[in-house]
Amino acid sequence: LTVERGDGYAPQVIVVIGSPLGRISAGRIVADGFASLVALAAAGSAGTVQLVGRIGDDPAADAVLQDLARGGVGHVAILRDSAHATPIDDGGTATGAVVASLGPLAAEAADVELALRYLTDFSVLVLADTDDASVVRVATEAAAWGEADLIMIRVSGPEPAMSDPASRSLVLAPDEHEPERAFADRV
User: Fold this and answer.
1) 24 vs 31: CA distance, rounded Å
2) What whole-number distance in Å separates Cα of residue 85 and Cα of residue 24?
3) Sign (positive or negative) of CA dihedral 171, 174, 180, 185
4) Could you state, in chain order, the average pLDDT of each consecutive group of 10 residues for the chain (187 residues)?
5) Sheet of 169-172, strand order
6) pLDDT on residue 3
7) Does the global pTM surpass 0.70?
8) How far is CA 108 from CA 24, 52, 81, 183, 184, in A?
């Protein structure tokens, strides 16, 4: 995933674990959801960014993935799930889209583990808002094995429990009234 320049510099690779959502904006579907916001913010500031997660296998998913690509976010490790529609925030216009308040399609631990077998050259692993202990375990082990920094993000609910936490780990949560987009930029 990284290509060294002639001077030996290799850009940082950041892997964000969390599934994207879609949002209708100006009549088109764009990437949304906390994992997408973090990945897009990171892509705008440093190195290579890959998103690991799950999304539907429908035209809305195509639009979300195209928007992520335009923002510099790779999505080779996004699982396309034909059994579920891509959750879309339609702004309350009742377009018949699956409402994003249902949340993103959750990536399972086995999916994350497989993705991280292919995305091995990361220096930062970001776990975006999950309470699935098996996903947390996979991320913690992968970060320790790859000697990567691990950033665990809690947007809501209790702080995730790390099994055998890595020494280079950090758990972040938003300030009391911090908007989700501002928090994603700060991460």
Assistant:
1) 9
2) 15
3) negative
4) 44 87 90 91 84 94 96 94 88 55 78 90 85 86 88 64 55 66 64
5) 73-81, 48-56, 13-17, 124-128, 149-153, 169-172
6) 38
7) yes
8) 26, 11, 12, 25, 22
The residue behind tokens 């290509």 is 3
Structure tokens at 159: 């702080």
Tokens 């059994």 -> residue: 83
* Burial degree of 12 (CB within 10 A; 0-12, 13-18, 19+): middle
- Ramachandran region of residue 77, left (φ > 0), alpha (ψ -120 to 50) or beta? alpha
Of 161, 166, 164, the closest CA to residue 125 belongs to 166
Q: CA of 174: how far to CAs of 20, 28, 67, 97, 112, in Å? A: 19, 29, 25, 29, 25
